[in-house]
Amino acid sequence: MIQNPIPWPNGARCACAITFDVDADSLIHIARPKDSWNRLYPITMGRYGPTVGVPRILETYRRLGLKQSFFIPGWTMERYPEAVEAILTGGHEIGHHGYLHEDPTEISPEAQRSAFEKALAIHRRMTGLTPRGYRAPVYNATQATIDLLIEHGFSYDSSLMADDIPYRMRSGGKHLYEVPPHWGSDDWPPFAHYAEIGYMMPVQPPEQGLAASFAEFEAQYEAGGFWMGIWHPFLTGRLARWAVVERWLEQVLATRKVWFAPLEEIVAHVERLVAAGEYQVRTEELPYFTQPVAG
Ligand SMILES: [Zn+2]
Question: Which fold has domain 16-286?
Answer without folding.
Answer: TIM Barrel (3.20.20)
